[in-house]
Write a structure and sequence with these properties.
By secondary structure, the chain is α+β, with helices and mostly antiparallel strands. It is about 55% helix and about 20% strand. It has 20 helices and 15 strands. The strands form five sheets. A four-stranded antiparallel beta sheet has the order 8-5-10-9. A four-stranded antiparallel beta sheet has the order 12-11-14-13. It has a three-stranded antiparallel beta sheet with strand order 4-3-15. A hairpin with a 2-residue loop joins strand 1 (about 5) and strand 2 (about 10-15). The relative contact order is 0.09.
């Protein structure tokens, strides 16, 4: 037993009782017992015992209080740690699609892709659209939205529509028992390697890189899962589109039902601009022309157009009659004009039009101009389209900016390296079995054209009307035999070309495209119409 004894104001620790204190202790205990018994018999309580009991209660209350406070602090620490780790945000349900819940991270995959694609496609027009990327999208009204709302709402709607479509297509493929090609997994693994490589090139871990691109909710697992779903949806829909075929009779019937859409016109015309000249005030500020000035400008344009037309009818050469009026009159010869609802095209495609017809057309309301036009002929384009494959090799990004010393020399060096790489790849292909399949495999591995690389670099049904860079298109339309190759330089880099062969006549390719588009849209609408996204307030806080 240990006892603490107070003596002379000091606390002494005694392991045992001294002999002279034992008796005292025994006597004291005896008196205390008798005293307690007396008080107990009289119904009174011992003040000392009562005080000690009260003290023990206070101690218990304090222990409970401080224990509770400690638990609260522990819980706060846990919640803070969990919140900072983004576990809550990553797992938070943001939307449900037909009752199935999707997290904020999954929604962010689509939202961020939609947003970045918009910036990439319209980077030069952001100020025109009224989009300020330095401010919150939730605080900026979107002029492009038909339903009103903010830019955030605009991008979110597209993201949710895409998300619904992807999951609808994947669900349909599963119900149908559709078998995805092995290339899906190969492409997925390649994409993930590219992701890791890109992250490393910027000095990030993959997790940091994904967070920078998609927000703090994104993980590698979520990214890979959504990328796979997108690939599967694209493959399934593309397979359906490719399965749509039409007979020559079907194509002919569709053409005859809407000849204006598929015919072309050979014509020449002069456009006389009737816009009022820009003016500046004394301070150099541009001012809008008055109504009277606009009227005078149009009258002058009409007078010039009438004069050119009279000279043409008198035997003049339309292309030369604009030489003395190049500031306002522009000559154009076009052997593949297509139909539109514009004044010029409506006149050219009028069913009563005959070769040699000419006129002065008033287009002052739509374009502040007059046309002097000559119709040569209208025809159905019968020439064959062609199919090619290509591998795009782009020059590496230089360290110097345009205008800096050494910029041109660096660009020349980088272009030379890209050209050499293209030549080496072509030589590598030629040294092997040199087949179309081996070229397609090389394109998948090396082409910088992401739009065609996954399809082995295939560009189908190239025509004079195709929206391709001139150098590329000109090579395609030159006389080639299947299997011919070459290297073409364009503003994008160096294209290793492979000529596959001829395809459908142009008019048939256009009719086929229209029929496929209509049939595909009907199929797509039917699959996706019942897939709608319902937003969940808590999880949506972490989207964007």
């Amino acid at each position: 037993m240990q006892v603490y004894f107070v003596a002379c104001g000091r606390i002494r620790k005694l392991d045992t009782f001294p002999n002279d204190l034992r008796g005292l202790k025994q006597m004291s205990a005896s008196r205390e017992q008798k005293s307690n018994e007396g008080m107990a018999s009289s119904g009174r309580s011992d003040p000392k015992t009562a005080r000690e009991a009260q003290k023990r209660k206070e101690i218990r209350r304090s222990n409970i209080l401080y224990g509770t406070i400690a638990v609260v602090f522990v819980l706060v620490a846990i919640v803070t740690f969990v919140w900072k780790s983004n576990i809550v945000q990553k797992a938070a349900g943001a939307v449900t699609i037909n009752g199935e819940k999707y997290t904020a991270a999954e929604v962010n995959y689509y939202y961020k892709n939609v947003y970045r694609n918009f910036l990439s496609n319209y980077s030069s027009y952001l100020s025109v659209f009224g989009l300020d990327t330095s401010k919150s999208l939730k605080d900026q009204d979107c002029a492009m939205s038909e339903d009103g709302g903010t830019w955030y709402d605009y991008f979110l709607k597209q993201a949710l529509d895409q998300m619904c479509a992807v999951h609808a297509l994947v669900d349909s493929a599963q119900k149908e028992g559709y078998k995805y090609p092995d290339s899906i997994q190969t492409d997925l693994e390649s994409s993930m390697k590219t992701l890791d490589s890109s992250a490393s090139s910027y000095g990030y871990s993959t997790a940091q890189y994904l967070s920078a691109l998609y927000g703090s909710t994104m993980t590698r697992k979520v990214y890979q899962a959504q990328l796979l779903l997108s690939m599967e949806a694209q493959d399934y829909s593309k397979n359906y589109e490719n399965s749509l075929t039409y007979t020559t009779d079907q194509l002919t019937a569709a053409y005859q039902a809407d000849t204006k859409t598929y015919d072309m016109v050979n014509c020449e015309y002069v456009k006389v601009d009737g816009s009022a000249a820009a003016k500046t005030d004394a301070s150099g500020k541009s001012t809008e022309a008055t109504d009277a000035e606009k009227k005078d400008a149009l009258a002058a344009a009409k007078k010039l157009a009438d004069s050119i037309y009279a000279d043409y009818q008198a035997g003049g050469d339309l292309s030369k009659l604009t030489d003395s009026n190049k500031d306002t009159a522009t000559y154009t010869a076009n052997d593949s004009t297509t139909y539109s609802d514009a004044t010029l095209q409506k006149w050219l495609f009028d069913s009563s039009r005959k070769s040699g017809d000419s006129a002065v057309l008033d287009d002052s309301t739509a374009s502040s101009a007059y046309y002097v036009v000559v119709f040569n002929n209208r025809y159905r384009p019968e020439y064959d389209t062609v199919d090619v494959r290509h591998i795009l090799i782009q020059p590496a990004t230089g360290e110097k900016k345009e205008g800096e010393d050494g910029y041109e020399a660096e660009q020349t060096k980088l272009k030379a390296e890209a050209k050499q790489k293209a030549e080496d790849l072509l030589a590598k292909w030629k040294s092997g079995d040199a087949t179309e399949d081996s070229f397609a495999a090389l394109a998948k591995e090396n082409s910088a054209d992401t739009g065609s690389a996954s399809d082995g670099g295939l560009i189908s049904q190239v025509s004079k009307s195709s929206s391709l860079v001139d150098a590329f298109k000109n090579w395609c339309l030159e006389k080639h035999n299947p299997g011919d190759t070459g290297i073409v330089e364009s503003d994008y880099g160096y294209h290793i070309m492979y000529f596959v062969g001829t395809d459908l006549p142009y008019w048939q390719s256009q009719v086929t495209s229209s029929l496929k588009s209509n049939d595909f849209n009907t199929w797509y609408t039917g699959l996706t119409k019942d897939y709608t996204a319902k937003q969940l307030d808590f999880g949506m806080r972490f989207v964007g």
